[in-house]
Amino acid sequence: MTDSRPTLVLLHQRAGLPWVFEAAERAGIDLVLVPRPDERVDPDRLPPAVVELLPLDLPADPAGALEVLRKRHADAPFDGVVTLYDPLVPFAAEAAELLGLPGIGVEVARSAQDKRVMRERLAAAGLNVPRFVRLDPADDPAATVESAGLTFPVVVKPALGMSSLGVTRADSSAALGAVVAEVRRVSAGTADGGAGLIVEEYLDGPEYAVESLVHEGRVQVLSIGYKGDPKGPYFEESVYRAPAPLPEAVRADVVREVIAAHAALGVSYGPTHTELRLRGGSTPYLLEMGARIGGSGVSHYIAGHVTGIDFAAQALRLAAGLPPTVTLREGLAEAVAAAANYIVPCGGHGTITAVHGLDGVRADRRVDHVVQMLAPGDVVRPYPDFTGYPAFVLSRHEDTAEAEEFHAHLERAVRIDYAPATTEGAAS
Ligand code: ADP
User: Fold this and answer.
1) How far is CA 17 from CA 319, 341, 344, in A?
2) What is the pTM of this model?
3) Is the beta carbon of 129 within 6 A of some atom in ligand 1?
């Protein structure tokens, strides 16, 4: 600990997404922001709590970045390194480990990120796992999937992917080769260039996100939220509504599975974001667990409103080596309200000419934030390429049923227009 205010290095957080910055301010923690390479942060208009900008050449030169952090820490010590950006979770863990700061450890961080390792660890711990197989560039897809005894439909995904990029459903052995080639092409930008894939059986059932805060090995599950029921072939995110209405027994199974997954993956500290599907409508199967606050901070908004616990502020305290200011108990926290995120669908591709309906949405008293990421002039590439989501609408509700009604209204009210395709590329 430094003798002045605690300080955290925060990696690649978008300046326009306010939750983590505001949480740091509430927690009395200063931030050294490492900006994203695609974002210019105005030094005269820094986000709340940011006291310094520290550009690092990440992810291109991690060794150089570690050296800069080591020197910065030697000159003026900080108390922790955090990120909400999934690909940098292992780097943050490595930096923390190197500098003797709190963290989950680089080995745990890497294993939570590599879907092959994650599946193996969950299976070894006796948790629910679909049949799966690793697929390397030299492997013949159809023969590999057949010899592993997988039943179609299957889902093909990059082992080191994020944001559903490249995740694609294949319905038959005949379709598999083309799907694999496409997943490799789309995920060429991931850490291993899209070489390592995993193929697993398609889990049929609704999807849920679970936000948790872990301290001294105790997993306080904050919220379980409904994430829609995407059927593929591509898995665009759509809604997030918490708390999810679930039968008591199913809710208990979800909590048990999520707590056991933390133990299986070795995540004993910090915030986590877990995604799962209820196979057959009732049996939880983990899709993945991120050792970070999810959705660039959206998870803070959701879990914070559902529980009344300041999720991000508590997570930042843990990252700085401070104890939480709330009592964290193993198990599910009580829900005191409902919160939701509506992800405006692209609904087409090409050059955006208009985004309709957002002004009316901004004026709705239940809406706290409309985060717009795509605007007229931006070009949306057709799926399976991923351009990004047009906008998030974050809202608060008395209960989840009201959130559902509100989302049905948004489906009608918000629409994106595209210029008619003029080139072959845009029309494809
Ligand atoms: P990423 O880390 O890229 O988000 P995920 O494994 O979380 O990858 O997959 C993204 C989405 O694809 C999931 O949220 C889910 O909707 C869908 N998906 C992934 N694997 C499966 C599966 N085995 N069965 C059904 N849907 C899946």
Assistant:
1) 19, 14, 16
2) 0.95
3) no
